[in-house]
Specification:
CATH class of the largest domain: Alpha Beta
Strand order of the largest sheet: 7-11-12-19-18-17-16-15
Structural class: alpha+beta
Number of domains: 2
Radius of gyration: 30 Å
Number of strands: 19
CATH topology of the largest domain: BirA Bifunctional Protein, domain 2
Helix content: 25-40%
Number of helices: 17
CATH superfamily of the largest domain: Bira Bifunctional Protein, Domain 2
């Protein structure tokens, strides 16, 4: 029922604060003013006094002879002490103590001749969680705590619901993910994590600009999906009565721009895959895809190493990054210094799993996978050798690649969009110039020397379309428009897709992809 009030309207705190809101308005105070202009952030004030303690005392602040500042933030602590009261104001960056005085603190909009005095108004009408503007003077208490002597208080927003309980805090992860605003208010490390993510994105864009990449935007809604093996999300556009798909990759549209003559381009955007949810997968995630004409996959390996190295140096000043959320719970130091280890897929299987696939028949590989994994036997029975080798890598090797490692030269069956290997022996073996880079046992990126032969491209996509018709929900549809574009001529090109969320997990020491998304996908709350 649309006229049924939400459950929180019945909470005592909500009822009491709503009553106070009415009383505040009756006193002539505007509880939701249009604007306020701080002169400093709280971090600015704290930073200014980090290197020296000479801030003056409370008597000097009362006489307005110390530094004058105007700040804004959320009231997160309050205690009355006779003629003074002390509070703590929090903004995006930090917290700072505020002192309110019975004689010198005024409240914006409150009549000086009214029955309710300013300090009493603050004590009785203002609650924890309210947003305040504070104009006053800086001083240090006898114990040395930096404080603002509030001369004028402006109520900026009356909150009608309380903050999470101060001492127990916001612990439940489901609540933290679902109500991220409370998580950000309650947990400074969470605010710092997302600030780090933003800094990382700035570094990435700056680095790409230095390499003369142009940022572009391509459609999220597509007539056909492609560029990866994944199930799409579908929707319908009423205006043209047409079914559409949300993109599972940025690749196809970007390659059309390469045909159009754009030589170095990238896009950072959301992609959507109708797949499972776990510590490293969310159906909606952020991808960086970059394409450079006249490069190959060797150029891209160096490029990626330099990019990750740059991020580490600018964020931390070094290339050795501690990570504490490995499955065995030991701290790992990940060293992203260029260059990284490179292994072919077959070499990695031999090194980490002790299996030399060149000595095994297809039936031998199937037997290993049937006996030692949970892969579907029916799928194994009909899969070609290339996919069997790739499955062996996924099951036996992937999670052992903790330090940065490039796995190169994949079987052609793993992708229809990659150039066959330039070396004749490897090409005849059915290998392509593809690499995946791994960190902490998880795939960080996927890259290849791009296929620009329209005849081979069409043949491979036709094979994918047949797989799709046979029931493979993750196979590519046949995209004739894309093939037409390739027929117009795409230069030799290398392309890379980097999972931004997984990269953020490394640089923020996050245990789950949900920790680095502002609003991860959650089930609807029942009731």
């Amino acid at each position: 029922m649309t006229d049924e009030l939400p459950h929180y309207h019945k909470q005592e705190d909500f009822i009491n604060r709503t009553r106070k809101l009415s009383e505040i308005r009756e006193l002539g105070v505007e509880p939701y003013p249009h604007t306020f202009t701080p002169s400093h952030s709280i971090t600015d004030v704290i930073t200014a006094y980090e290197e020296h303690s000479e801030a003056g005392d409370s008597e000097q602040a009362a006489e307005a002879t110390t530094d004058h500042v105007t700040i804004a933030g959320r009231l997160v602590l309050f205690r009355a002490m006779g003629k003074n009261a002390f509070g703590q104001l929090q903004d995006e960056g930090d917290k700072l103590q505020i002192m309110f005085n019975r004689d010198l603190t005024k409240v914006e909009g409150l009549s000086p001749d009214g029955e309710v005095r300013p300090l009493k108004f603050i004590e009785k009408k203002v609650d924890l969680g309210d947003l305040l503007g504070i104009e006053g003077h800086v001083f240090r208490t006898h114990k040395g705590e930096l404080t603002i002597y509030a001369k004028k208080v402006t109520l900026l927003c009356k909150s009608l619901l309380p903050l999470p309980e101060k001492h127990s805090g916001l612990i439940d992860k489901q609540v933290r993910y679902r109500k991220r605003w409370l998580d950000l208010i309650s947990n400074k490390p969470v605010r710092d994590l997302f600030r780090t993510r933003s800094k990382m994105m700035h570094i990435i864009r700056t680095f790409l600009s230095e390499y003369e990449f142009l940022e572009v935007e391509t459609p999220i809604l597509q007539n056909l999906y492609g560029g990866a093996e994944a199930r799409p999300f579908s929707t319908h556009i009423n205006a043209i009565d047409q079914d559409m798909f949300m993109r599972i990759s940025l690749e196809i549209s970007l390659k059309k721009l390469l045909v159009g003559g754009m030589e170095r381009i990238y896009e950072i955007g959301k992609v959507f895959r109708n797949e499972g949810i776990d510590k490293t997968h969310n159906p909606e995630f952020t991808m960086l895809e970059a394409y450079a004409t006249y490069w190959d996959y060797n150029d891209l390996m160096t490029f990626l190493e330099r990019l990750v190295e740059r991020i580490a140096l600018e964020l931390f000043g070094e290339c050795k990054i501690p990570y504490t959320h490995a499955e065995d719970e030991r701290e790992i130091i990940v060293d992203v210094t260029h260059p990284w280890k490179r292994l072919t897929m077959k070499e990695s299987i031999k090194e980490y799993a002790g299996i030399d696939v060149d000595t095994l028949a297809d039936t031998d590989i199937r037997r290993i996978l049937e006996n030692e994994t949970e892969l579907d036997p029916k799928w194994l029975a009909k899969s070609p050798r290339g996919l069997l080798i790739a499955s062996l890598f996924d099951e036996k090797v992937c999670d052992k690649l903790i330090q940065p490692t490039h796995i190169i030269d994949h079987p052609i069956e793993t992708t229809p969009l990659c150039k066959p290997h330039r070396e004749k022996a490897k090409r005849e073996e059915g290998l392509v110039e593809r690499f995946e880079s791994f960190l902490l046992g998880k795939e960080l990126c996927n890259a290849y020397s791009e296929l620009n032969d329209p005849e081979i491209q069409r043949e491979l996509l036709v094979q994918q379309a047949k797989k799709k018709e046979a029931g493979d929900l993750e196979a590519h549809p046949l995209d004739e428009e894309f093939i037409e574009a390739i027929c117009q001529g795409m230069p030799p090109t290398a392309g890379i897709g980097i999972g931004i969320d997984r990269l953020t997990m490394l640089f923020t020491n996050a245990a789950s992809i949900r920790d680095v998304l502002y609003f991860p996908l959650m089930r609807l709350e029942q009731g």
